[in-house]
């Protein structure tokens, strides 16, 4: 157990049966009152972000999440199947929980699976992934004002904007935090 005023951004804790990640904390102390900690948190199970306020002395359970590197194998309909690289154990995660991450998953890529007490919370993608351009229009000559971009579709179905010099069949690096083109692979 740890005092709520000792939490720092990046810490994970349990409060009222909810699993939270600390995004930011503001400690406020006025003359005659106890210190109040306003903690901006993300609910790890639901993904919602909100702010909770607790008085100094309020205790929460500080926890650590388990991370295990696993390989994405295939899509089995309603689930995505991952395999542990060491034990070859396979797990399934519902597609509903990984809508954004599906834009970057291709067969045999490694991801970190986060869990707590055996409950799978989600996956953590690498910062950038290499994806092949499957559909891309040819560049129009003369359209070069202000860093011109054109639409392209990558092998996972994600639509991105790429520079004019990128052509169909090339591999590009795509950022997993916002889904934008980064560079050639």
Structure report:
With 185 residues, the chain is mainly β. Helix content is 0%, strand content 54%. It contains no helices and 16 strands. The chain has strands spanning 2-3, 12-15, 18-28, 36-43, 49-55, 59-63, 66-75, 79-84, 90-94, 110-116, 119-124, 128-136, 149-154, 159-163, 171-175, 181-184. It has a 6-stranded antiparallel β-sheet, with no helix packed on it. 15% of the residues are buried.
The name of the CATH topology of the largest domain is SH3 type barrels
Assembly type of the chains comes to: single chain
| Distinct helical segment count | 0
* Rg from alpha-carbon coordinates: 22 Å
Q: What is the CATH class of the largest domain?
A: Mainly Beta
Average of pLDDT: 87
N-to-C series of helices and strands = EEEEEEEEEEEEEEEE
Fraction of helical residues: under 10%
CATH structural architecture of the largest domain: Roll
Shape field:
flat
The counted number of beta strands is: 16
How far do the termini sit from each other?
Answer: 46 Å
Estimate the strand proportion: over 45%
